[in-house]
Design brief:
single chain, alpha/beta, Spore Coat Polysaccharide Biosynthesis Protein SpsA, Chain A, eleven-stranded mixed β-sheet, 36% helix
Length: 308
């Protein structure tokens, strides 16, 4: 089932939201979008077979808001990667701004400031911002300073872990559609593949120091799963076959078309270094050799090439 009400033919932003239940949180996020001063955007929601029976509330809100929107109820459950891709398939804007269903934009001027930065930096192919906790205001700094970085494989290899948190990641819509694939469904990092592929093939990356997202909306009487409530275990137990074990493959596949095999092997070590840093931050201690093993045992000698 697709419902579309388009008031803008070619919007600047398509706000792409993969939805499954969490309707109260999504409605709060939509209120933040309704409040935006910059109106050149559409909302694209793919509903992955929600079971709470509240899709009518979502559509009713969107219609009453006057926003351009596209709403799709998937015919089968696609899980995260497929549902994120489904939301982006609905997009008609210049950019897909990826948006979790329990996060929201920081304030009414957010889209205006983001638009102005993208234009001032020559319309980069990828952009990402910092974000903050809804309740405490504590900022997570995945970006150290606002900077435009070159579209080369080395940039993708050095910065891929910054898009693990999806909200605030902005991608050129034409590139997103050109590189669409089901190959990494189940990785839970589809945005990481797209970021790596787009940058490796020449798309520039704009990192934005400002916090433009509020993470983990709170709704009285309701709660959603959050990694923030998972206890840190040291050493980190990594389960073979889990989504985290696919991260290195996702990124190397994204970069692969831009490199010959010898150069690709060299970047594998850099990717593993970044993965080691990411896993250590999320789950405590983890060995370099464990990272190599769970990622499928890259060419011999890769582990020895990692310098931490």
């Amino acid at each position: 089932m697709d419902i579309r009400e388009q008031h803008i033919d070619a919007p600047y932003f398509s706000i792409c939201i993969p939805q499954h239940n969490r309707t109260s949180f999504l409605l709060e996020a939509l209120r933040a979008l309704e409040a935006q001063e910059f109106r050149d955007f559409e909302v694209c929601i793919a509903d992955d077979q929600s079971t709470d029976g509240r899709e009518g509330e979502i559509v009713d809100f969107l219609r009453a808001s006057g926003l351009s929107f596209a709403y799709r109820k998937n015919v089968r459950n696609l899980r995260y990667d497929g549902n994120l891709r489904a939301s982006m398939e609905l997009a008609r804007g210049r950019y897909c701004l990826l948006h979790g269903n329990d996060d929201c934009l920081k304030d009414a001027g957010t889209l205006r400031r983001l638009h102005d930065l993208l234009e001032a930096h020559g319309r980069p192919a990828v952009a990402l911002t910092n974000f903050e906790d809804w309740s405490t205001g504590e900022v997570t700094r995945r970006v150290a300073a606002t900077a435009l970085l070159p579209g080369v494989p080395e940039t993708a290899a050095a910065h891929f872990r910054n898009v693990a948190f999806v909200t605030g990641v902005t991608l050129d819509r034409e590139a997103v559609h050109a590189h669409s694939t089901e190959r990494w469904d189940g990785s839970e990092m589809y945005q990481m593949y797209l970021m790596a592929r787009i940058i490796a093939l020449g798309g520039t990356l704009l990192e934005i120091e400002e916090s433009m997202v509020r993470k983990d909306i709170q709704v009285d009487g309701e709660m959603v799963d959050s990694i923030a409530r998972v206890a840190v275990v040291n050493p980190c137990p990594i389960i073979p076959g889990s989504p985290v074990t696919q991260i290195a493959r996702v990124v190397t596949d994204g970069i692969a078309p831009a490199l010959e095999v010898p150069a690709r092997r060299k970047l594998n070590a850099r990717i593993l270094r970044q993965l080691y840093i990411h896993l250590s931050a999320v789950g405590g201690g983890v060995s370099v050799h464990a990272v190599v093993e769970i990622c499928g045992g890259y060419q011999s000698g890769v582990a020895r090439s990692i310098r931490l």
